[in-house]
């Protein structure tokens, strides 16, 4: 079952975010920072929203959606991020169900012009999954500048 996440799911979401960072980048994330970051989404839905997949009464997968305004298209792209499926549930359609829920909601939402996501260059398995779901590789590369870490703010600011 896939549903919008509730505040009570924050602990699972934060744990999955930490696991994802370790699996994909070998990064150990600060527990308090990740927990504050997840909680901030529930406090201010303008920051994003989570969807979770459940089985046997527990969260087994997640995806977060954030928005980006496109002045070229006069509409919003939904970015699908913080994607994680518990290892024992992978290759069983969990992400396909999460993506299907997000895509259906995006298509029903006025002003949404498409979905985007980013993926690690070496994560060929995820790339093939996204292709199977109808997504295509973009012509753009992503660049970033990361600022030094600061203590987490409270979710309200």
UniProtKB/TrEMBL annotation:
Keywords: Acyltransferase, Transferase. PROSITE patterns: GNAT (PS51186). SUPFAM superfamilies: Acyl-CoA N-acyltransferases (Nat). The keyword Transferase applies. InterPro entries: Acyl_CoA_acyltransferase (IPR016181), Bact_Acetyltransf (IPR050832), GNAT_dom (IPR000182). Transmembrane segments: none annotated. It holds the Pfam family Acetyltransf_1. Signal peptide: none annotated. Residues 1-154 form the N-acetyltransferase domain. GO terms for molecular function: acyltransferase activity, transferring groups other than amino-acyl groups. This is GNAT family N-acetyltransferase. It comes from Methanofollis fontis.
